[in-house]
Specification:
The protein is an alpha+beta fold. It has four helices and eleven strands; from the N terminus they run E-H-E-H-E-E-E-H-E-E-H-E-E-E-E. It has one domain: 3-layer Sandwich (Rieske Iron-sulfur Protein), CATH 2.102.10. Bound molecules: FE2/S2 (inorganic) cluster (FES). The site of FE2/S2 (inorganic) cluster has 12 residues, from loops.
Length: 186
Amino acid sequence: MLVAATSVAGAAATAGAAVPFVWSMWPSERARAAGAPVEVDVSRLAPGELLVVEWRGKPVWIIRRSKEMLDSLKAVTPRLTDPESRASVQPEYARNEARSLKPEFMVMEGVCTHLGCSPQLKPADAKAEMGADWLGGFYCPCHGSKFDYAGRVFKGAPAPLNLPVPPHTYLSDAVLLIGEDRKKGA
Ligand code: FES
């Protein structure tokens, strides 16, 4: 029943502070093994927080993007391999700049498209480590691929494609369903 969340804003401001946790709905073991959709209450996510849930054995990240995070997406576009996600994997409704149904919430698989490592969250203030032009996103420590807050990969990375976006929809303002596409007319 427990999933971990970490705060970009919090991590940025208070390195070493306790990592907050967020509770979420979770399917039974049997349903999970069968690949059942996962319902997640996103209402308690603060701007900048990242929530990790498991779906089909993979970590799925849900990040509530702040305005600064959303603004960074446009700024980094010229530096990306597949900025319009033409070759990358996502549902058609997530093939947009924010790669999401709702710009505020990004849902993506936390699995590097190079060799499958799990990238790490690197907020904008990690410039000493990531470079002076770093505006925040994710870094894969295995071979150095960098991704923005929409999971779009930067040029020069060994990862060929953006992080995949799983099918998902919203059952209400508060409840996200991972594993099923948007219903018709929704
Ligand atoms: S697995 Fe991520 S860069 Fe190689």
